[in-house]
Records
---
Amino acid sequence: MMSRTTSHALACAFALACSPALAGVAPSRDALDVEAAVQSNEAELRAHRAEFPQWFAKAYAQHANLPAGSLEAIAYSASRWTHQIPDVRQESHQHQPPTFGVMGLRDGSGGFSDLLSQAAQASGYTRQQIIDSPEANIMATAALLSQWLGDRRAKPSRIEEMLPELTRMSAIDQSKRGTISAFAAESYAFDVLLAADRGEDDQGIHVPEKAIEWERAFDLPALKRQRAPFVRLDLDGDRIDTGDSVFDPVSGTLKGIEDGTKSTDYGPALWVASPYNSTRSAAISAVTIHTMEGSYAGSISWFQNNPYSVSAHYLVRSSDGQITQMVRESRAAHHVGVHNGYTVGIEHEGYVSNASWYTTAMYNASAGLTRSFCSAYAIPCTSAYNGNASSGLVLLPTSTKIKGHQHYSSQSHTDPGQYWDWRRYYNLLNPAVSVTKLLDTFETSEGHFNLSPAYSGSTTGIGTGSTSERVSSMHKNGSWSEQLMLVDNTASSANWAVRFLSGGGAPASNSALTRANGYVGFWVYSGGTGLTAALGIDDSDGTERSTAKSIPANTWTYLEWRLDDSAQWDAWVNGNGAITASSVSLDAIWFYRAQTSYTVYVYVDDVTHRTQ
């Protein structure tokens, strides 16, 4: 549910220059080409973020009890490193109250804690300085976090030891916290830790990658609830056994714990009840796409307790596509006015002024949810909007059943806005038969491959200094590719086996792939000899790994494997060597090499699925 939020593209101390694309001002053309618009937005954001690293460094110098990387991770989770200055004079449209600045501070409205005033008191900056200046916003937040740590005499060396402070940063009132509020605050903290765990180095954002010891922050039920990527413990069998529960760090699944929070309408979703719903006036026949103009955690709290009785059926998290249901599908949520009676509403985390919130994981999760509506309520997936994105109100006919908040009559909301890729969403809802689908092109983002090559619990031989990032200096198609810098682990003599994860290792975060007559492949370039590559595919009964193929040095080569050819798949510890499900997903690209002390660079472009 979108409101107009003023964000600023070039920020210095107390005088900010306003950028129309960030401020929510309509561009000269109402209908925009999404890819060009996203690239323009990224260029503005890169300039906007240029001075942030020096301010983070200054904050750490003044507050030595803050673990390295904690501020960057909070800023990424809260704002995607965007200094937001909401225009509080404008109509709030009954969505969750705004957050202020790069660190996402609340002002005390809507039942959230007044972190702005607390930060002002802790730092000596005024509230207005903290609102206006990204430097003051960062410094004041650092002072507040440092004060909180001092209050409990904590000197954490790792960000996961800051769990009490991270939940307080959610601004969900501690004194009123019930089970649902506790879940929302936990979700906020989890997302910050996930940002630190994965790291980020793109478009001017640099969050240092720090392997999170998840079990130090959360118990096992919480890890399951929050879809923790894996727990890093060196135990036999590469798993954790606790009573009747088993957590597998490779597949990211936890069995044996049932915490009663699952949705009964849509299996992959969690269930957190909102009291704001009513009797439907008609059968479900349409789906409404929203943008929260806020955080996932904040929306969960807001839809559980707000003065306007607003709600939505489902919420989707940006970082990993986690879904929480808050209103039963049989009931009307309060999300699109006079159209509540016959629609299902999906809220997507983020802000319409910043394209980076709309991630591959979010698109995939949302499309999977909408496909379930199409199946359950006889809504044709082909009735989804398949045109240009826009920044304003655009009335679409009732025959368009899957569309944005901005496309309905009698509305003032303009979400999901100019960066929502409707054609991409349409293709996810209506996967073509016998065609080639580009899974990841690396042109505007890292897509599914947003983790470093050293992230996986199955990777051996390479060190934590190994990185992956988008580069424009080397590419096969388009203007960008993904560069992997593989650095030897000097403490090990093991041969290299590198599992470059897709979708964080969670099958639900990846695109569904047809097995019958299906092929998966990618372009690859290596600056050295001796490398081979393979694929990992998530099947219904495990992760299957393909045979390995050689990578010639100093030339782009296209490698491809057929999904329904058993000769191309091997049995290994996590799979039986047979792909049997009709629909599967890409788990990872594997690289192998004999151990070497040299750093090896590998480039990947255009990961593709085709059927014939």
---
Amino acid sequence: MTAVARPALGPRLRPIEALRGLVRGSCDEAVWVRPAFLGVLALVAVLYLWNLTVSGYANTYYSAAALSASKSWSAWFFGSFDAANFITVDKPPLSTMVMGLSVRIFGLSSWTILAPEALAGVATVGVLFVAVKRSFDPVAALIAAIVMALTPAAVLIFRFNNPDALLTLLLVISAWALLRSLEHGSYRWVTLAAVCVGFAFLAKYLEAYLVLPGFALVFGFSANTTLRRRLLGLVAAFATVLVASGWWVAIVELLPAGSKPFIGGSTTGSVLDLIFGYDGLGRIFGASGPGGGGAGGGGFSGEVGPLRLFNGQFFGEIAWLIPLALMCLVAGLWLRRWAHRTDARLAGYLLWGGWFVATAIVFSYMSGIIHSYYAVALAPAIAALVGAGLVDLWSARARIWLGGVAVGLLCLGSAWFGSTLLDRTPSFYPGLGTVAILLAAAALLALVVASLPSFAENAAVRRLAVGAAALGVCATLIAPAAYALDTIGTAYGGGDPHPGPGTAGGVAGGLGGGGFGGQSGSFGGPGGGLPGGPSTGLPGDGGGLGGNTSDTALLDYLVSNKGTATWIVAIDSAQDAGSIELATGLPVMAMGGFTGSDPTPTLAELEADIASGKLRFVIAGSGSGFGGAGGFGGGDTGVNAWVTATCKAVDYGGSAGLYDCAGEEHLDRAGFPVLSLER
């Protein structure tokens, strides 16, 4: 009788084997590497996702654009502020595209707006770990990942809905791809790096290009191929950056004016005008905003100069580990001074050092509008340099007995520097800086003892030295981690959020309540219109347009009387319009764009929209934007004066200046009654 073969058990075990391989990692890695990596990602997920909805809709400007992108594919493509495509946001559309898809799939909520940003943060830390490990080793990668995760600017931005989150992720992916290209001078990988930079441009325009000098230096010098192939690779990468950056710009520029929204932030409705003006070169060289209503960089982030990144606006974001990163960069380059040009560690220092130096110089000296949260773009480079430099110095102790002591000294110096920064907010955990200094001093003492020749060969002492080094690194992170953890429990809104408990010079968490840019947002509430959030963000909720009871009355009136109009209301400035749009789900015409100073609509355009029935109600004289004097469209089109003189004031039960421009009592310019407009 023939025996029946029993089925093999191997295939049934494959899912278990796969799971074990996921946790264990590859055979050539130390057993702790993959669990540590997964542990850091879990920590980051908690940091960035826990209590995420505390900020409501955060920046209502971008939240409203995400809502519009979820309702209209045209608004999704252009990055329009409203679903009716009156005007775009003053940034390229990639970030609002991602948020818009989230809202389209899962519905509008604080979570669907902010979760993509938080997940981008988790991905950024993960990719940074992989990138640093490729050039250095797992310990350096682990330190870099932890530093990145706990950088206050990162915790803020990856829990907020400004485009900087996506920008940072794409640049880190680009750095990883570039490092991969160096091994064999691969055109495929350097092209991928260029594509990522191009798409980062579509997240935040010219800021994406700040990494290019360092990237070009690294490939041109360190790629493992001939000089001719390196030069050709650079040319191909440059062309790829232009194509990946320019396809959307070209499409929008080629479309006729009547088939696209006005480009917010521009003076002519042109993307190129925005790139080379207000939102591009104007930020660097100090040009004013559209209509002459912009603000200089000093109004947001202090005076221009080499110490700007340490001033009262910036320090809480990024300053904590900058001195340590610079010393690690110098030490790393010195230790690799005799290395071959293709040495992976040397390439890593050149890449992250070039990224940091170029970006820091531009941020320090740009004289146009700059917000301190831009500093998140420095965080990956700082984290990588700290991880790489400390580990390289530690490794050097085998040749130079002071290697371990140098690590201790750097950690002590960094802990002391963090303590001095904490002293700028003395009521925030007083004594915490002293604790960090004491821990770092204890670590240094242990490292000095462990470095003595009589103890150097003792296994127990070596383990003590490793523990002391880890303690020193932890001591350096105490100060920034405290600011980062405080950020998790804080509600942020408006256009200029700051992490932590506050900043020196009296600038705490923004530029003040109400108006543009503060923690409170335009209408005075961080919720920015989120029902049930920390604030309604509607008119009268702590600033803006009306009294304490006007918000609901205004919205109810506008919704009930909308009729067939395209826009529920027109109002000066997108900051005010965003809260109404989010609360009603209906398009709002943001006259003058983000600042209230964009030259749109003209008086003729507004009259045409009213005559055609696309618009009925206008809120006049809010004066919340940069336009000044309550003037819409740059303050010189006469729209505000025409509305108040021609349209009928509405008594809806609140105090906002609501006017009905298409009702029975509509008057012509001469003040004579005319027939009601058909709507």
---
Amino acid sequence: MCGLAGFIGFTNNAELAENANKIQQHRGPRQPVCVARRVYCFCPPTPVDHRSVEAANQPLHKNDLAVIFNGEIYNYKELQAKLISEKQVVFQTSSDTEVVLEMYKHYGPECLNYFLGMFAFAVYDKNSNELFIARDHFGIKPLFYTQINGAFAFSSELKTLVTIPGFNKKINAKSLVSCLNYIWISGNETMFDGCFKLPPAHYMIYNKAGELKLVKYWDLKENAASGGSADMASTAQDVANTIELSVKRHMVADVPVSCFLSGGLDSSLISVLAKKSNEHLSTYTIGTGDKDKAVEKMPDDEKYAALLAEMHHFDHHVIKISPDIIKDLPHMVRHLDEPIGDPAAINTYLICKAAREKGVKVLLSGMGADEIFFGYRRQKATLMAVRFNLLPGPLKYVIAKVVGMLPVKISGKGFKFGRWAKRFMSFATMPLNEAYMRSYSYYDTNQLKELVKPDYWSGIDAINKEHEEKFNAKFKNDPINQICNTDISMFMLGLNLTYSDRASMAASVEVRVPFIDRLVVSKAMEIPGNLKIRKGISKFILKKAAEKWLPEKIIYRPKASFGAPIRSWISNDLRVMVDELLSEESITKRGFVNYAVVKKLIADDRNGTADNAYQVYQLLTLELWCMEYLDAHPGYQTLNAQTNDKQQYVS
């Protein structure tokens, strides 16, 4: 675990680096003996801050090169052997950091295509005076950068860059609209104009003339056979073998590796395979109170997780969600760096925090399987919409009228069918690309124009264009893989990987994702769509592969999301916060959205005529983010809830 930061061309480089060291401390907390805190100058005036274990000897200097590295290279031992035999390299350490440096020395940017892992790293060449910065194939590890008055800075966290004097805090219109529409930010922009994320599978070179060059080094191949036929049995076996090897690679660590366990297919499969490498595997499950389950109609994950834990003798732990959401939400907003309105981030933080208190430093997650194997309900619902459009017009009209009258909440209890039916009808008659975008959007274009002030309408066109380009980029003859590919570049990157890294790092725990492995994703995207869903069964080929290790009651149980009782929180715990932070005064002060629309969203949610909990939660998240990143001085405050006025949410 570590955090990167580098500064070139500022008058106070060393001071900025030391400040970065403090801000990103949670990414590499000081431990007895094994964790270093350093401010390093590649050469004047280029200080770089890095936190990592002493064994990795970072920053590592060798042969006129210096490297700082964040992440894990799971096949580094094989690469080390390759370098020794083919290049006669003499290694000074046993770390993957030195392997990264030597691979770059001997293969240049081509080294990136040898790596299996998650990473963000920077190599400085003292001879050319160039800085080479790279990010992993899917964006598992973060890397932000900006240029300010000719100077250059990069960091693992946005909050580090925001503290730089002269940082431009002008809000990016596309990112604002994106965070409202999706509840996360798509693409490579941040909430601020002029500050960016290095895209996945890209590297950049910053030369001595101050020029910045971005290069894409890898792209997912489109299998020409997609949409065709494939042998189910042999394909399932290939999937099983590829995932098993990935989990084995991800278990390589200097400390014991544990697992998230929801009791669903993905985390159960990862946990059972991980047990092969760790006989005393510990697993962690989120538990939810009965009151929250009633409002949310949440599945009983604990039951299935306990069943699997008993079968395989896991050291199993159930972590009850903290009811102190008033305190946890502002804390999470600060750590997420961006206004991300998915409460799963709080789940991740709480479970990682509890695991860390038990000494756990590394957890495996089943994240990514739904994206690459077609496991989300909205994916399946989009295909259903195609069939719905074949119905006679009068019948579609009647169905729409009936669904419109359905409640989403009755006597304080959630009505799941009403929620799902209303969401389905919001996109059921659209073309495939638009339908899929709408399936995970919270507004259509007209609703966004009503919500957002005209100054930010350019962002509406930008996100529509972006989604269309992503959707049509590949697999046009296979709509199932077309949807999967869109999720890889949009949803998986913008939401799941983002909150997972930042929330886990807030608890100083490293989360690894075996499904989001270059070989696993490539294998999954070679599989034709007709093997990913069959006879209405989503993730069909993965489920067939999992039959080798899991019982049917786990494999074929109803789909359950890794969520949180957001509707219960909005209705109960967060009700006062909503009234205070989304008041007419607050909304008008920001100037982003129209108060009348916000007021109606809240009212409709409370009277049960619409399910607006996520929209309200995201608006709340956005205001908390503004209080921290626009009003306050990021990097020095600890968000808390100790007073009774509005200032309780940031201090």
